[in-house]
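Worked example 3 (structure in, sequence out).
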């Protein structure tokens, strides 16, 4: 399946694994890359030693391209960028800040630059500054989200941008990939579905919570303070939203939320932690190898695309 994304990153399939904090490590990234997609190591909340260790772990498990996600709000972002360049990772995804100041350093190291942007204006800005591709992520995604839907972003961003556009937010099966390709996307970024990969380090209780969830089970916290985060309804998220409605001060809300992602994903406290996940929950039916996840999505996408001409008759 050849697209601008597969050509750019020298991968088999147009699927990038989302960089999920506390979850996306070298083992998961390598498994996704081995399966033909592009794995991504998350660095949010991690120190430089961890980042280098996970990059080298991934290198020991695959010779296929993989990337690293840089959270540009992180206090150690400069150190993380230097490590990525030293290790000569294939590509980076960058979000939560201005990526342009780092482009020259990545270019010198031969690292492809893929910023995550929320709208046409910023997509054009990073394109004109030398980005190799962009990710646009709809509010259907898990974790930190923007205000536009995936469909609205595809409709408005893709026609305006020359470099490959990767879309994210709500993708969990082959029909979604096929729809994105028909809209003109170069590929998709998918996170929540990979939470159920055998190689994913998320706590078993976290994974089971996702399997048991129904289609209406996500909720967005932090909207009133400008830090919207989507996750599964539980004791923590429902209480947080109620406190927002009551006008609880921002500093108290931030203190309450701090550490809750790790509490759920790593420690397995799925009631008092934030179980971050996207809206497409029903396709999350079982724990399986990353290879099976990727191959089933590609097979379904190909079948849908083959049937597409019949729909236009």
């Amino acid at each position: 399946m050849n697209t601008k994304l597969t050509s750019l990153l020298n991968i088999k399939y147009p699927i990038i694994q989302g960089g999920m904090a506390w979850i996306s490590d070298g083992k998961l990234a390598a498994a996704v890359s081995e399966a033909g997609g592009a794995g991504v190591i998350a660095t949010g909340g991690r120190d430089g030693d961890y980042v280098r260790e996970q990059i080298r772990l991934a290198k020991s498990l695959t010779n296929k391209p993989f990337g690293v996600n840089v959270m540009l709000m992180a206090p150690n972002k400069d150190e993380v960028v230097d490590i990525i360049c030293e290790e000569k990772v294939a590509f980076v995804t960058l979000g939560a800040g201005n990526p342009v100041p780092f482009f020259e350093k990545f270019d010198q190291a031969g690292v492809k630059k893929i910023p995550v942007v929320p709208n046409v204006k910023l997509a054009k800005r990073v394109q004109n500054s030398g980005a190799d591709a962009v990710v646009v992520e709809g509010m259907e995604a898990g974790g930190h989200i923007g205000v536009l839907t995936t469909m609205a972003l595809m409709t408005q961003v893709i026609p305006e941008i020359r470099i490959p556009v990767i879309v994210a937010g709500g993708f969990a099966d082959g029909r979604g990939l096929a729809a994105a390709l028909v809209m003109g996307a170069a590929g998709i970024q998918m996170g929540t579905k990979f939470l159920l990969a055998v190689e994913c380090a998320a706590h078993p209780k976290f994974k089971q919570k996702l399997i048991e969830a129904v289609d209406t089970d996500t909720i967005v916290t932090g909207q009133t303070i400008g830090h919207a985060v989507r996750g599964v309804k539980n004791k923590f998220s429902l209480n947080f939203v109620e406190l927002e409605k009551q006008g609880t001060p921002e500093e108290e809300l931030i203190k309450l939320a701090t550490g809750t992602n790790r509490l759920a994903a790593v420690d397995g406290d799925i009631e008092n932690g934030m179980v971050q996940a996207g809206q497409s929950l029903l396709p999350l039916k079982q724990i399986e190898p990353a290879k099976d996840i990727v191959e089933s999505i590609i097979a379904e996408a190909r079948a849908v695309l083959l049937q597409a001409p019949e729909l236009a008759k």
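Notes: The first helix runs from residue 4 to 9. The CA atoms of residues 35 and 294 lie 6 Å apart.
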